[in-house]
Amino acid sequence: MSYHASRKPISVVKTYLNHNCTDLIPPPGVIINDSNRETWCDWVPFDGPDASTLLGYLDSAFLFAYAVAMFFSGFVADRISLRYFLAMGMITSGISCYLFGIARYYNIHLLSYFIIVQIFGGIVQTTGWPGVVAVMGNWYGKEKRGLLFGLWNSHTSLGNIVGGLIAGRFLNIDWGLSFIIPGVLIAAVGLVDFLFLVDTPEDVGCILQEVSQQPCNTGVFEYSVCLFFSKLVSYTCLYWLPSYIKSSTSLGATLSSYIATIFDVGGIIGGLIAGYITDSTGLSATTCFVMLVISIPLLLLYNLFGAIDVSVNIVMLIILGIFVNGPYALITTAVSADLGTHESLSGNSKALATVSAIIDGTGSIGAAVGPLLAGIFSAAGWRKVFYLLMLSDVLALLVSFTNLKVF
Length: 407
What we know:
Keywords: Membrane, Sugar transport, Transmembrane, Transmembrane helix, Transport
Shape: globular
Subcellular location: Membrane
CATH topology: Growth Hormone, Chain: A
Number of strands: 0
Number of helices: 16
Organism: Ranatra chinensis
Protein name: Sugar phosphate exchanger 3
Order of helices and strands: HHHHHHHHHHHHHHHH
Pfam families: MFS_1
């Protein structure tokens, strides 16, 4: 949860770094004229007409670094103590949040500084997913893994909610704290992990009983490509929903960030539903396929009608979160763990983090591309962004079709 909480502030704070200042009262000493009437309160260098593009660069710097480093992170996680690996990653992730937040106090306005901090943050955040999936895979067998991992995966959405609420709480008071407090949170949890985490049941004298499974095509490549497009949609929503809600409604930055967290509530429900259906039927690819089919028209409907009313927006965000995040949650948890412990790997438990990293690393490339394109397309209208998301889900749909099992 703390990993995702520490990633969320940028999507909230970007609505404050660049917004319309016309209705705000300037502090003493600030001279307002026609050239700066709408931008006097913005944070340089995000005060120009290209602000959306520059903010998109920040997202992409983090996500591309995350995607590239992920392939190496899984290899490392399989070869050192997961306790050390996760503790180190969480503490350094806290440092990256702190470095972004102190720009507020040291009056840092260099785009290069923010990009370097984002790259550093993307690299150290890769310790999270392969590490925690490996720990879960070590401790829990394959029986009812879909529902179990669906319940456990709610930490991603809970982290987004907590991070969004913390960032939103301090947004209008001191946006530096919107980063620093989640940074302290993840560093503290890293210390707890270092003190108490046990890597495997064998480390404390326990033996995990496994159930047999039917041989099947591992499908690492197909699921990796499917996750590329699914994660593109999910992370574009994660990073740009607050900005979209603010621009399409009369709501302020703080309330927009709060409402955007409702999408993650739907994500929790979607992960549980996808996991339960997979456990009941054994058809993970079919589950992904059906949820992707439903998500495509939902994206269009939300773009057309989501801004009508706050209550309509909330209901549609919950439904959208269920079907957009359901496939993403299923692939990155239960499917990754199943593939990483598949019998074709000859019982090599050291492959679990590596397989998880390959799948999530490929998906993270899509997560990097999505927000970057959204930042560019949004300048020409949000409808184009939603067309991009719908196209991505169509492509994910086509890839998931190759993995369908026939009754």
